[in-house]
Design brief:
The strands form three sheets. Strands 8-7-6-9-10-11 form a six-stranded mixed beta sheet, sandwiched between helices. By secondary structure, the protein is an alpha/beta fold. A hairpin with a 3-residue loop joins strand 7 and strand 8. It has three domains: about 70 residues, no CATH class; about 60 residues, no CATH class; about 170 residues, von Willebrand factor, type A domain (Rossmann fold). It is about 35% helix and about 20% strand. The longest helix is centred in the middle third of the chain and has 21 residues.
């Protein structure tokens, strides 16, 4: 039987998941910060959950607290109680923010349910091997933490019965050292799919803070879903204006340049990273490129299309381009990709992200095919 505290915790977790699911679109569009805590846990602020509180009835209904005195009379207490505090009163309501913890799988399930995302079918890649210890057998040696109490008791009972010292009227069984049994691990080689996500983003002057915040939020949820689908996943970040360079996650979202834009520079670096570190026969590869659609020239766009045709598309599960609209961006690169591939190429997925309200729809466009 479950402990009441465990039942209450499970019920509260279910309420939190329901609250997040019901308001997921609003939650994402408002840019609520979800804070990583460990490798697969996240802290989530939930300001909209009301904490249970007492509600007092009308005095005419009777009950405790009824007696002599008038409304507004001070309650007698110890000296000093009820005296005014120091300092000035504040304006507005106090902060009622509650933080809860949820796992990658919990958040991914909420996202998958909301967007009706299919499970990902790996693109026929070879699987990477990993060793897994499964405790499926019993041994005579091991640490106390792996002691198998039931099997130890049975061995002690068998020993006492065979020696004729077991008394059914006084069934006192005391194991000795040679009776101890332990769970024993069988090491097996299991094959697991691995994935790499390569984010590329234009950081030229036309990509402002609002556009980068949209990319940050969308990439967080994309990563969350992919992590729930693959046991091993790596994430790489490329920024570019007229030149491209690989950076860490923090730099990726904070950098802003003022130069021109050569999208091919990012595609070439992406190609180099794949050739160096990720054999397409072993890895599921996901290149994502985010831009406002400006490119330096039509010639550079031709170079990009050539790189896609010759390398990026054949070795990737899919290529995703997200156009984050800005007042300065022309959107021409989206038009060029659409004209070249459109609906004819199932592995090229294009998405226009007008504002934060469009993030969820864009995620569904990218992940809705289960690639």
């Amino acid at each position: 039987m479950d402990h009441p505290i465990k039942r209450d915790h499970a019920r509260f977790k279910k309420i939190v998941k329901g609250k997040l699911r019901d308001n997921l679109r609003k939650y994402i569009s408002e840019g609520q910060q979800i804070i990583p805590k460990g490798s697969d846990q996240f802290k989530i602020p939930m300001p909209s959950i009301d904490i249970p509180r007492f509600k007092f009835g009308d005095k005419s209904e009777g009950g405790s607290g009824q007696g002599e005195g008038q409304e507004g009379d001070p309650v007698e207490g110890q000296p000093g109680e009820g005296e005014p505090g120091q300092g000035e009163a504040g304006e507005g309501e106090g902060k009622k923010e509650l933080e809860v913890e949820m796992s990658v799988d919990d958040l991914a399930q909420i996202l998958g349910d909301e967007l009706e995302l299919p499970k990902i079918e790996p693109k026929g890649k070879n699987k990477l091997s990993s060793t897994v210890d499964r405790y499926t057998s019993i041994g005579t040696v091991g640490p106390d933490s792996l002691k198998h109490l039931k099997r130890t008791y049975k061995e002690a009972l068998k020993r006492q019965v065979s020696m004729g010292v077991y008394d059914p009227k006084n069934p006192h069984v005391v194991p000795i050292r040679k009776d101890f049994r332990y769970r024993s691990a069988d090491t097996k080689i299991e094959m697991e799919n691995a994935a790499v996500v390569i984010y590329m983003m234009d950081v030229s002057g036309s990509m402002g803070e609002e556009q980068k915040e949209i990319v940050r939020t969308e990439s967080f949820w994309i990563n969350l879903w992919l992590k729930s689908q693959y046991k091993d996943i790596e994430i790489r970040y490329i920024i570019h204006d007229a030149t491209a360079k690989e950076v860490d996650e923090d730099t990726f979202f904070r950098t802003r340049e003022s130069g021109g834009t050569l999208i091919s520079s990012a595609f070439k670096l992406c190609k180099q990273i794949i050739e160096t570190d990720y054999n397409p026969a072993e890895w599921n590869i996901y290149p994502f490129h985010f831009s406002d659609g400006d490119n330096w020239s039509a010639d550079d766009t031709k170079t990009c299309l050539q790189l896609l045709d010759d390398f990026l598309l054949p070795c990737s599960n899919m290529f995703c381009y997200g156009q984050v609209e800005s007042r300065y961006g022309s959107g021409q690169f989206y038009k060029d990709l659409s004209q070249k591939y459109g609906s004819k190429h199932d592995d090229v997925i294009l998405s226009k992200i007008k504002n934060k309200d469009a993030i969820l729809d864009s995620i569904k466009e990218f992940l809705g095919k289960g690639k």
